[in-house]
Design a protein that fits this description.
198 residues; alpha/beta; Rossmann fold; four-stranded mixed sheet; binds guanosine-5'-monophosphate; Guanylate kinase
């Protein structure tokens, strides 16, 4: 049984949980969203935590499925009420993990996957030292830029901010339990499974 230890008590109780908390981090555009979706498809027992964000929905994104889209005022209220397990500002928008569903699932024995950026991952690691933290790296920064541009969904200033942040995030990869390079998709997915289930 996996024990999750919490440092501060607001969101957790003093008894062992049975689910794992899995944190997937890596620079924007590295493909961690696709890896995570494949992981969930192959392991339907995993629970994906839907984040809140103040970013506008991209074409095809559905409120409550991809994110809970909200304005800054509502997000800040949730922060003030302590409703996030972690939250951070990224490329001009807020992102946060609603606390309650995560704790509930872990208490039920489900393993929960968070797909979040570096600052949030650091907060989670501080609150839950036993979380499994995985960092996904691109084969190179050039390749990452091509992937972000190829996505064609972000304005130029957002791309520049994401690339700058990507370099900062990659510098922190060694903080994580495991580092996996997403060069060949299937190999990367198998490596994630190997660290989680073996
Ligand atoms: P995007 O705007 O491309 O969907 O996400 C931008 C970044 O925010 C990605 O690195 C993604 O992993 C991260 N992110 C998504 N949800 C959360 C969250 O709840 N908390 C934090 N800290 N980062 C998040």
């Amino acid at each position: 049984m996996q024990l999750l230890e919490a440092k501060s008590g607001a969101t957790t109780k003093d008894y062992p949980y049975s689910g794992k908390l899995i944190v997937l981090t890596g620079p924007s555009g590295v493909g961690k969203g696709t890896l995570m979706r494949s992981l969930l498809a192959r392991h339907p027992d995993l629970y994906y935590s839907v984040s809140a964000t103040t970013r506008l929905p991209r074409p095809g994104e559905i409120d409550g499925k991809h994110y809970y889209f909200m304005d800054r005022g509502k997000f800040e209220q949730s922060v003030a009420r302590g409703e996030f397990l972690e939250w951070a500002e990224f490329a001009g928008n807020y992102y946060g993990t609603p606390c309650e569903p995560v704790i509930k699932q872990i208490q039920r024995g489900k393993s929960v996957v968070l797909e979040i950026e570096l600052e949030g991952a650091r907060q989670v690691r501080a609150s839950f030292p036993s979380a499994h933290s995985i960092f996904i790296l691109p084969p190179s920064l050039t390749e990452l830029e091509q992937r972000i541009r190829g996505r064609g969904q972000d304005p130029e200033d957002a791309i520049a901010r994401r690339l700058h942040r990507a370099q900062e995030e990659m510098n922190a990869a060694a903080e994580f339990d495991v580092q996996i390079v997403n060069d060949d998709f299937e190999t990367a997915l198998n490596s994630i499974e190997a660290t989680l289930f073996s």
